[in-house]
Amino acid sequence: MTDQIVTPFRSESHNHKRCVTDAMALAEERCARRGARLTRIRRRVLELIWSRHEPVKAYDLLDQLREEHRGAAPPTIYRALDFLLAEGLIHRIESLNAYIGCGDPSHPHLGQFLICERCNAVAEMDDDDIRDLLAHKAALQGFHVNWQTIEINGVCPSCRAIPNGTVSGNETDTPADRCR
Amino acid sequence: MTDQIVTPFRSESHNHKRCVTDAMALAEERCARRGARLTRIRRRVLELIWSRHEPVKAYDLLDQLREEHRGAAPPTIYRALDFLLAEGLIHRIESLNAYIGCGDPSHPHLGQFLICERCNAVAEMDDDDIRDLLAHKAALQGFHVNWQTIEINGVCPSCRAIPNGTVSGNETDTPADRCR
DNA sequence: TTGTCACATGTTATTCTATTGCAAACAATG
DNA sequence: CATTGTTTGCAATAGAATAACATGTGACAA
């Protein structure tokens, strides 16, 4: 059985700099192989998304991009996001209107997401059992499945270890800063 | 085993007038029992949603409400929707930014939605197998589930029966008008 | 080298979705 | 009647995404 966890929750040992460069390398490689043009803007947007390692809003990306790229406007971001989605390099989280890096761009997949409502961390699964059960249940209704949106909200293991009322103080930290 | 289909796809025999009045009666009853105030606006919004019997956008509802209620503004609609969501009388479809009547408001539930991308018809399931499998898979990651968003896009049985390129002519009809 | 074509980006405006904040109206209760 | 909590009215604004058209750029062939 293959590993059905594409992006696990980050552990204490997570080397984030390495994580970003690895993801970028995979992206470069995949685009090269497919003849897709990972331009400067597109590359930079992907890098900004991976740097955060949590769901990022389009206008947050726009603000960041503007700091280094005067003239960036909403279409700049949305075009880059569309490209990255089409290439399977990121996923869109519907319930958050946000985008997150895909941990396994090697093959197109739907993904199922575990979203921590305390720290915003997201783990990505690509679980055949889930996909197949949904397809099966749909088929019982005579329904043909093209796409599945599966987003599970709750509390990640790290946050469960923290007493409920506890507040970490800085609510703008990234997941790794708050969740251990 | 209980019936896990809350709102099936509409059949030819669907009596839509009856369907709406039934849904309204259930809503009245549930609100009365819970001491929730189903005011004129809230009742009317619910009725508008059920009348369409497919996912409806907030601003569509606003337009309709304005025709009979001058002074209706975005907050008017969103407050009504918030109330109806809180009472479990409607569901929100995240992937469409739209709202749909709940076929079984008797108990709170998550719901899994089959969304036809041809005719917009939606069937609602409340399937324990799906819910439990997702909870199980999440638990394997140490994740505690509070909420599940499950939206399945594809082609409903009625539309599958229609040759692919066929267009029914009037794309603004309701699902029942087009899907048989 | 130049022309051409496809693709990518710049630019401005607009549409769609949703919330905030405060005032006025209303309904239930003592 | 007075009080209290809830609901609605109203104006403004925030947030998410797209449309339409102009301009730039890179690869390839003539």
Can you tell me about this structure?
The structure is a homodimer of 180-residue chains. Helices cover 43% and strands 19% of the residues of chain A. Chain A has helices at 16-34, 40-52, 58-68, 74-86, 128-140, 157-160, 175-178, and strands at residues 5-7, 56-57, 90-93, 98-101, 112-116, 122-125, 144-155. In chain A, the strands form 2 sheets. The first copy, chain A, has a 4-stranded mixed sheet with strand order 1-6-5-7. The longest helix of chain A is centred in the first third of the chain and has 19 residues, at 16-34. Mean pLDDT of chain A is 91; it is low at 167-180. The first copy, chain A, binds a DNA duplex (30 and 30 nucleotides) through helix 4.
What is the radius of gyration of chain A computed over CA atoms, rounded to a whole number of angstroms? Answer: 17 Å
Strand numbers in spatial order across the main sheet of chain A: 1-6-5-7
Q: Strand percentage of chain A, roughly?
A: 15-25%
- Tell me the helix content of chain A: 40-55%
Return residue spans of chain A where pLDDT drops below 50 for at least 5 consecutive residues.
167-180
Distance between the termini of chain A: 29 Å
Structural domain tally of chain A = 1
Q: Biggest β-sheet of chain A: count, sense, barrel? A: 4 strands, mixed
* Major protein interface: A-B, 36 and 36 residues
Structural category of chain A is alpha+beta
CATH homologous superfamily of chain A - what is it? Answer: Winged helix-like DNA-binding domain superfamily/Winged helix DNA-binding domain
Q: How many strand elements of chain A?
A: 7
Shape of chain A: globular
Which CATH architecture of chain A?
Orthogonal Bundle
Rounded mean pLDDT of chain A is: 91
Number of helices of chain A: 7
Which quaternary structure do these chains form?
homodimer
SSE pattern of chain A, N- to C-terminal:
EHHEHHEEEEHEHH
- CATH class type of chain A: Mainly Alpha
CATH fold call of chain A = Arc Repressor Mutant, subunit A
